Target: Metallophosphoesterase
Amino acid sequence: MHDVTYRDRAAYLPFADALVVADLHVGRAEASNVDFPLGEEASLEARLAALVDAFDPAAVVFAGDVLHRFDGATVRAAEGVSDLVAVCREGGARPVMVRGNHDTALRTAWDGDVHNEYVAAENPKTVVCHGHAAPETDASLYVVGHVHPAITVESVRRPCYLYGEGVHRGADVLVLPAFTRLAAGVPVNGLSGGDSGSPLATDLDAFRPVVCDEDAGEALPFPPLGEFRRML
Model:
């Protein structure tokens, strides 16, 4: 298992000096029936700032579905993306955008490069992609989003990470929870591999859920889902 630090739905990769977040879905609240001042934009910005301050990464990699709407970014959503980019730059981190399936119009909110997949480190070879399509680059570790994993324990649904060793072309796969708190998450308790929606997670039984205990400041790894389901 590769060295990863888990915090607040994000992952810090020390060997890449990169912070990775996925599925921000900027503009989701605005697109719903709830007023956008619900506070999600401010929450995303403040939480990202806290993570950048804590880890001081060289890069922040946005692993897809930065935007929620497929057809374009509203003015407010574009401002939200700009604010997140500013958080990175003010913290001395380079923002890197990776395209998700929702990001067909990301260029309306971001004028830099948009990667289908991004090599975050050469040793170990680490590729960040969204996870909705199989990557072309071979790697030792793939870091993805898209699935929005959560796990229900004692009737409480919690966002979780999923870590699978050697599960995709012999490489490890780390699936991040959605960074936005507006996404309740998809409970993995009863999912099979084909239900994940990602070609990198075709055998969910082999993935270990990792749940962050934010109060204790630690990540709690559980047995692989194939074993853990019997305990739930």
Remarks:
- The CA atoms of residues 72 and 105 lie 5 Å apart.
- The chain has one domain: 5-231.
